[in-house]
Amino acid sequence: MGEIKLNAKQQEAVDYIYGPLLVLAGPGTGKTQLLSSRIAKILTVTDASPQNILCLTFTENAAQNMRERLAQIIKDDAYDVHISTYHSFGSDIIRTYPQYFEEIDLETGKDTRLERPIDELQRLEIITEIISRLPYSSQLIGAKYYVKDISSTISDLKRSLFTPQSLEELAKNNLRQVQTLSPKIADHLAGVKRFPSKADQSIELFEPLLDFLDGDDGLAKTASEALEKAIEKASESGKSSPLTEWKNTWLTKDDHDHFVLTSEDQHLRMAELAKVFERYNQALEEKHLYDFDDMILRTIDALNKNDDLRFTLQEKYQFILLDEFQDTNPAQFELVKKLCDNPVNEGQPNIFAVGDDDQAIYAFQGASVSNMSEFRHVFRDVKVINLTENYRSHPDILHTAHGIAGQIESRLHHDMEGIDKNLVASKKDLPSDASIERHEFDAEANEYSWVASKIKELIKNGTKPHEIAVLAPQHKYLENLVPFLAHNNTPVSYEKRENILETPLVRMFRAMIELVIACSDNDQQLMDQLFPRVLSFDFYQLPVKTIWQINWQHYRQNELSWAELALENSDLTPHIQFYLALGMKTSSEPLEYILDYLTGTIPLAIDSENTYQSPFRNFYFAESTNTLQYYEGLANLSTIREHLRAWQAGQETLLKPQDFLHFINTYEAAEQPLINTHPIALAEDSVNLMTTYKAKGLEFEHVFLLSVHDDVWGKSARGYSNKLTLPANLQYIRYRGSDEDELRRLLFVAITRAKHGLYLTSHAHKDNGKKTEPVKYLLEFGEGSERKTSVLPVSKQIVHFDNFDQAETMQAIDTMWHSRHLQLDAPLISLLRNRLDHYLMSPTHLNTFIDTEYGGPGEFLLRTILRFPQAPGIDGEYGNAIHGALEYAQEQSKKSKVESRGLVAKAISEFDRQLSKRYIPENEMDNLRSRGHNSLKKYFEARADMFALPAESEVNFANEGVVLGVARLSGKIDRLEVDKSSKTVRIVDFKTGKPFSKWEKELKLLKYKQQLYFYKFLIEGSHTWSGYKVAGARLEFVEPDSRGKILPPLEIDFDQKEETDLIELIQKVWVMIQKLDLPDISGYTADYKGATEFIEKLIG
Hints:
By secondary structure, the protein is of the alpha/beta class. The protein contains 43 helices and 33 strands. The protein has an 8-stranded mixed beta sheet with strand order 20-17-21-16-22-23-15-26. It has a 6-stranded parallel beta sheet with strand order 3-2-10-11-1-12, sandwiched between helices.
């Protein structure tokens, strides 16, 4: 077990094993090593196994980093500790204990399985449909104009643990209180024409309302508490404004010009919203969809209703660790409480939470910093440890950070005795003097130009590019800096965010789909408009002159269509024929296939003799293409197809080309962008451009904070405004834009990323000439050369005004002006570094790499690493439906003993359900359904007894941490037959298609054999199956042979030489993948012989 040197407070937190512990860990205080060391300590001094420890965090990256850090200390045991995000944990419980979450009745058709996450478009469609059916008298009839706001509010409600029923009850209770209290308030304020401006008179007027509002709960209690605070503030300040503010929030006038307690309409709207909320949940259930909030809510609900499930999990997870606890929302904390409420704990479970309220910046995601305070009240005798030794930053950086943190009004330690959150600089190897500078420029372009030049200077003086970060609250401020860095040849890494519906490639697809539909409808007028536009796209490489000649000819000879004239030109004929032929397929082919024809992924048969393959793929994704354009193009195409597939899940039939246009139109109508975010690194060592949210948890030698203006970092920054007004006692569920404390925390987080270099820049005037204001939290004072930033150390407070001469200013403006036309490029390996770092090799990947017939290294790169989007094949979709049916049959057999006839009926029904959701052309569906029914009947006749054996289905090794030499492995095994008494397992792999009775020299069988060996490596290298031996492996051919018989399973005898050779092959292929060193296979034959020769060459 590796040792980590801890300071006294860290060691105290590590040693405090039993009972609830809250650790306040400021930035740079060693939180990650504390978590890892604590887990190691638990395993050392207790009887707990790694499986008894649960660690919850917020991002997959954080979970991965924690596991890697833990592996350095406790080695392989790190992969048995359950480290997960909250949502993944909920998903794991649902998957592991499905009996508590699903109800499937094939006779009645009731099916409440959660199959796919819902995307934003589906949410909007479902809610729009619900609202469209509301009666005209409904309080929410106007919500059709702000559907996105209804969607957002439903998500807020779920995160705050509201159900439709509890929301309806709140609305009814509010309405009762309004109707009861409003007459009393109206009587008290009758005759008041003008409210007094003096504090004492206002207090005298409003104080009696406390007697009316006296209540234990609901709206009255919230109003009463708010009024008490307003009276207190008015009394202290001597001003009536707090009471005026209370009046404006809580009182309104009715139709009789009387003051009443809020508007009844507001609460009637909430009652209507409860109905919409309920119908939305019902729609999700009917479509087998879930949103991410449901992952946690469904788990909480199951734990509430099923004591046995709750006790099982409580017994399993004896030690719970919560990372970044300040970022939890109420639903996440409720889930944790359910895992800890076993009476045997007596309110003192073994739960450890670490966080920092000064870094709570995720309120916009529903996070509630109040959970840190509540932790001390939910659990009994909570020990609190405060970490203040900072191992990151120079004392001057921490001085600046303290200047910001000291302005935060709501800080946890204000209510705790003996807690001082001032950080102490404890890193010894930093420069004696920190580089802290505050600069202001005349114009935005000059600011960016200076930042780029300063970064160039730092790199020239020896700073590694990755040790430099430029931070801002939003991406849009960072993107403007990219051309200035490119102008200086500075490598940069940033996350690009763009609305892919506005990208050139997607616009091209929109036009091409419109043309296909016009050809299908024989809409000559539209075809005449679209053909010249589409055939002008770059990838056709047709001369402009040719297109215009047809245009002029069409103009002169109006009686002939554009297509008829173009067919007379041999250069245009194949393209015209392609669209005409493709138009004829729109009624029978799903959208996925139409897109594959348009991208050139598959050729289209024009007639019995001619085929056509679109030049799109070869033009945009050839080796000669600009690498960054290539990468971004693939990212955008992949994103839109992922969203289309998610949308498909909620449809009754397969999508057609018309649905593609509906998809885009719906997004545009809702003013909902389809954002694709993807990392771009122009070199493996690059300067980092990122939002402060993304930078949280990271550290850099030098940090630049761009545009430190009030409308960027401060209260003037524009936020999202929801048009659905919530009653005052429900407003806490909604993020209403950053409050002052959250904005200060954001600046605090940004500053504390820096080790010893901090640069705050701004520009004095916007492009429209309007003067900017510095963010007020910098506490700047003075004018001109006397202006100072008081949060900075005294010797560094001067604001430097950097004047550019006219030539420099013009150069900066020119760089900014031409930014849209900037053509960046980068090595592919830099763009893919993050993907390669997290890559896990599966048996399918290995087989694709060595397949000289249908795959090869180039196809592997395109399909697996670059993820070129294409429709799943018919054979694969059919095979998946068969696999799903067999998995379902196994699970049903485990639940209860089912006789053979009943089992095959269940399997066939499940097959039909699965097949109906697959991407299969309508003209193939009946044939495949019949084929599947016949195969399953015959297979169960021959092999039904197998399903009575103890077995696990679809065993996933993604989180097992399997390492073979230098390679990290993953995969999913169809079936594992487990003998716990002898600690052995047998591998079963189901196959559809042609069955084999013996091992032959066929490429398909070579790949099958490699799969079985690969599965053996997975089991032997896993932690779940540690101690088990592989007793055998076999292929189960589900379909009958040409005689209609199910062949016996094809067993394999593992051979030591074959195993050694395959291990060596995996090592060689892994290294090639990591280096993107992909050999050419054009010299090998496309068969078994060619593949084996290629393998021999790889092994050497």
